[in-house]
What does this fold into?
Amino acid sequence: MKQGIHPKWYPDAQVICSCGNTFTVGATKPVIRTDVCSACHPFFTGEQRIVDTEGQVDRFLKRLARSERLREEARQRAAAKAERERQRAIAEFVEAQAQREAQEAQAAEEAQTVAAE
It folds into this structure.
């Protein structure tokens, strides 16, 4: 083997987990820091929990809440638009009805005038 190309081996490398657990392994670094170990990983502990790495779950939950809020706002805007359309249709119907009644009244007057002559 070539000399000087292999990394230094630390047979007593310390592994430190974010949960506080420490243990010794052989590695090429003297200290290894990790987020999850066998003492705190849900697979080994049997717990049902979400392992949050750098806020990914929080970011997802924020996006989910925002999308639900936007969806509700869109639903409200659509309902308001439908109500405006309904009110406009009612107003048009009432106006058309009034015009028809005015035309019928005018036609009745003309018929009375013609009959009176």
Q: What stands out?
A: Residues 42 and 48 are 6 Å apart (CA to CA). The chain has a mean pLDDT of 89. The domain at 7-49 is CATH 4.10.80.400 (Rhinovirus 14, subunit 4).
